[in-house]
Every structure is written in C-alpha cells, then in structure tokens.
Specification:
The protein is built from 11 helices and 5 strands. The chain has helices at about 55-70, 70-90, 95-115, 125-130, 130-150, 155-170, 175-195, 205-220, 230-235, 240-255, 260-275; strands spanning about 5-10, 15-20, 25-30, 40-45, 50-55. It has about 280 residues and is an alpha+beta fold. A hairpin with a 2-residue loop joins strand 2 and strand 3 (about 25-30). The mean pLDDT is about 90. Strands 4-1-2-3-5 form a 5-stranded antiparallel β-sheet, with helices on one face. It is about 60% helix and about 10% strand.
C-alpha cells in the first residue's frame, strides 16, 4: 500500500487529486483518472509516465476547499497549465499557484459568461517584464480554449502571467501587480516630463521598464547597486539626472523608501537612451 494514493476527486481522465499519508497530491498520467471515484485507490506505476505533485502543507487546506468548490474540468486545465509551466521553466512553482490559478480561471469564465469586460491596463508592462511567463500564459489560454471551449481575452494572458511569475519568485500576485502598476505609472510620468510618446515595443523602452522593476525590489529591500559612473552621470547627463531625481521622488512616495543617487544615476542613463530614441 506504500504506493497507493486515495482519490479525493477525479478532475479529468488525465488529472486526479489524491491523498496519501495525510498529504495531498495532484496526479498526472494518461487515463489515470478514467472511471475513478472518490475513495478508490491509484497505485504509482513506474512503467507508466506519471507525475505526482505534492501540495505544500501551508496550502493543503485551501487547495482541498478549492477542489470542492471548482468544477473538475476547470481545475484540471489549471493543473495542466502549472505542469506545463514547470516543465518549460525546469523548476517547481510555489504551491500557492495551485489555489490561485484555478480560482482565477473559474472567476474569469464567470465574468465572461455574464458579459463583464476584463481590462488589464498593465498588459504591455507585464509582457515586457515577464516574457517567459507570458509565453507560457499564451499556451495556457490556448489550452483553456481547447479544453473548456471558451476564449479568454488577451487581458487574461497578463493575469495568468502574474500568477506564474509570483509562483516562481514566491510572492503574492498582489505584490507582482503592485510593482507592475508602479512601473507603468513611472513610465507615464517620464514620458510626460520628456514630452514624448515612446515606442512601447522599442529596446530602450523595454530596458527602462525592466530596470525599474528590479530597482523597485532593491529599493524596497534596502539594497544598493553602486554606480562607479555616478559623478560623471551627474555632469554629463545633468538634465536626465534632474528628471531621474523627480522620478525617484515619485517612487519614494509610492514605496515610502528613500532612493539613493546610485539608483537615480542608472535611471538617468536609461532616460538618456529613451530620449535619443525619440
């Protein structure tokens, strides 16, 4: 019985939620869930290509509740997307995605069914900041269309991206969204000061967006990235440095943290490149 897993719920013919030794597992395998009823047992077979993913203890109770409340087909697709992401990224995602992603897809489908528009104002920033996760989310929405016969709007690709990203770096989705929102506001602020409308697909735009994302993390965690060119930047890019200081004041208000001149000088260099490109 050491390899026996008790079925809690068969999500699809290929995905099953089970229990073993008081732990909860998601089981994957061709036909593994066919005809399986709660209370029946599945034996791990080394001769069959199977994947057994353990839900962390911290999320176990929440996941069991999700399993009870969400349609099996929806949860099965969410689990397939998570499995796909782990295979592509070559890493295990934080267990909170098993709770959050299925719940999100279920809610998104309900909103679409009643005709509520789903808007994601941060789509471009999300795509720029997290291209790998975005690519997986695109594959995920295609899987949703194939399995559930519903086409999620492009805005949803962005939200699924955030779920994958937050599970990679072990932070709440709200935190990933918070940083993305600030980046968007800073980029709008920079363009307003410069009096330009930057090409959002340009390399210069993408580099500044990416730099800001990691700068926010450094600032919030009191880390300093020294810039040996600080003094020369102040002199040779004085106008950009002045603008950057304004940007840093803006960031400081958002995060309630001081922003050092080293960070401001890096932002100055990116602003300089953005100006030259426009």
């Amino acid at each position: 019985m050491d390899n026996d897993y008790k079925v809690l719920k068969s999500l699809s013919s290929n995905v099953v939620v089970s229990e073993k030794d008081n732990d909860v597992y998601v089981l994957f395998g061709k036909g593994i869930g066919f005809g399986k009823k709660p209370g029946q047992f599945i034996t791990k077979d080394s001769n069959i290509e199977q994947k057994f993913i353990k839900i962390d203890d911290s999320e176990k109770a929440n996941y069991v509740q999700i399993v009870k409340n969400i349609e099996g087909e929806i949860l099965a697709v969410a689990e397939e997307i998570i499995s796909l992401a782990e295979d592509i990224l070559g890493e295990k995602l934080n267990s909170h995605i098993h709770v959050g992603l299925g719940d999100h897809i279920s809610f998104a489908m309900k909103r679409i069914e009643v005709g509520i528009d789903i808007v994601n104002p941060f789509l471009n920033e999300i795509q720029t900041l997290y291209p790998d996760e975005y690519s997986i989310a695109q594959k995920g929405t295609r899987l949703i269309k194939e399995k559930l016969k519903i086409e999620l709007p492009e805005s949803e690709i962005g939200f699924i991206t955030l779920h994958i990203r937050s599970a990679r770096v072990n932070e709440e989705v709200s935190q990933s969204l918070k940083y993305t929102k600030i980046v968007k506001e800073v980029m709008e602020y920079v363009q307003e000061i410069l009096g330009i409308k930057a090409n959002e697909k340009s390399m210069e735009y993408a580099r500044l967006v990416s730099h800001l994302r990691y700068a926010l993390d450094r600032i919030e965690n009191d880390k300093v990235l020294k810039n040996v060119m600080l003094e020369s930047v102040k002199i040779e890019m004085s106008e950009e440095f002045r603008i950057s200081k304004k940007v840093c004041e803006f960031i400081s208000e958002k995060l309630s943290k001081e922003v050092c001149d080293d960070e401001a000088s890096y932002i100055s260099m990116h602003i300089h490149r953005l100006k030259q490109a426009n």
